């Protein structure tokens, strides 16, 4: 898998999450007496989904994920 393929997968998932997140909030049940955490996460939903897809589709799972996760955020 090349870096271009990885970026393409991420972009597709990012576009999906832009439409999915508001729909999910509309259809989520509200429990009035229960407190919920609203702390923002460090990773976006599309980043998490990309990692999961790579994990399940790639044969050499550990090496690819480690090399991808260890890239600095500013490097493209």
Layout: helices, strands, pairs:
Blueprint: H1 3-27, H2 45-57, H3 61-69
Helix pairs in contact: 1-2, 2-3
Main beta-sheet strand count, sense and barrel state: none
The shape is elongated
Count helical runs.
3
Helix content: 55-70%
Radius of gyration: 16 Å
Question: What's this entry about, in short?
Answer:
The chain is mostly helical and 76 residues long. The chain has helices spanning 3-27, 45-57, 61-69. The chain is built from three helices and no strands.
Task: Give a verbal description of the structure.
The protein is mostly helical. The protein is 62% helix and 0% strand. The chain has helices at residues 3-27, 45-57, 61-69. The protein is elongated, with a radius of gyration of 16 Å. The two termini are 15 Å apart. The mean pLDDT is 77.
Give me some keywords for this one.
76 residues; elongated
């Amino acid at each position: 898998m090349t870096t271009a393929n990885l970026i393409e997968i991420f972009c597709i998932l990012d576009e999906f999450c832009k439409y999915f997140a508001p729909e999910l909030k509309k259809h989520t049940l509200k429990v009035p007496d229960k407190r919920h955490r609203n702390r923002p996460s460090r990773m976006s939903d599309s980043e998490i989904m990309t990692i999961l897809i790579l994990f399940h589709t790639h044969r050499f799972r550990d090496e690819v994920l480690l090399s991808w996760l260890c890239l600095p955020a500013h490097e493209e």
